[in-house]
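Same chain as my last thread, 182 residues:
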Amino acid sequence: MLTGNREFNEIYKKYKNLVLKAAYIYSGDNYDAAEDITQDTFLKLYIRFDELKGGNVSAWLFTTAKHAALNYKEKHSREVLSIDSDEPPEEPRRESVEEEYSEDALERDRAKLHDRIFKELLEKNPRWYEAVYLAYYMEIPQERVAEMMGMRLGALHTLLSRARKWIKKTYGVEYEEMNRQD
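reply #2:
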């Protein structure tokens, strides 16, 4: 089981906000669910602490919270919402069905491209992926990211620069084309 409560408590203090933020983002911006997912994630860590403490605990925490949040979101997206009143909910006004479809399609395409970028970035260089994800997607201050990754801030800046260059070279044209205004 657990060999050092102090060590676990330090990890909890260091990463609780990262886990909560990941759970919040991936659960569909549901704060209550994110809190529950965070609690469950640290409970799993507590139970498996001795076998995990030699590895990359921050990556394990993030991945565990992410998967739990995605599972939560998928499960709850299937639920049918009931409306207490007899009046139908007010929907945002759009100029046309075509415009709404076009906007939705563009958002889906962007999401697919972002997912593909992150997947291929992970395959290309896991350190780039971790740095980009923590610094840009999770919006953790770069000083903290460097600390989490066990590197100097200058080394993190170099890592991020190389990752951005690779992303721009690999996906720049596709991204620009997608966001072009006709």
